[in-house]
Design goal:
The protein is mainly beta. It has strands at about 5, 10-15, 20-25, 35-40, 45-50, 60, 70-75, 80-85, 95-100, 115, 120-125. A hairpin with a 6-residue loop joins strand 4 and strand 5 (about 45-50).
């Protein structure tokens, strides 16, 4: 049974940084992982994802809205993925979800992911 547990959400002021973490248990080794978010009244949207190209190497993909501000990183041995969020903006306020693919690759479509975490709230205030 695969489980994903997110942590690190919270309330911050605009311009601040926050780091989200996701730990996967029971996962398939080198599975692609990603982050999505859903703001109130809006659809879930892609944030960032990693696709493994080797045991310690991966390719990262970002949504245009977070490119240059967010950094996704993964640790294959620890089964974790993190999202470093810098220069947070009001529009980054959302519930952030960690997702796990059943293959080594992952992308921007929710259908590519088989498992989801429960979500963690990120609120950016002015």
């Amino acid at each position: 049974q695969v489980q994903l547990v997110e942590s690190g959400g919270g309330l911050v002021q605009a311009g601040a940084s926050l780091r989200l973490s996701c730990a996967a248990s029971g996962r398939t080794f080198s599975s692609g992982m990603g982050w999505f978010r859903q703001a109130a009244g809006k659809e879930r949207e892609f944030v960032a994802a990693i696709s493994w190209s080797g045991r310690f190497t991966y390719f990262a993909e970002y949504a245009d809205s977070v490119k240059g501000r967010f950094i996704i990183s993964g640790d294959n041995d620890r089964n974790t993925v993190a999202l470093q969020m810098n220069s947070l903006q009001l529009e980054d306020t959302a519930v952030y979800y960690c997702a796990l693919s059943s293959t080594h690759s992952s992308g921007s479509m929710p259908d590519e992911y088989s498992y989801w975490g429960q979500g963690t709230q990120v609120t950016v205030s002015d």
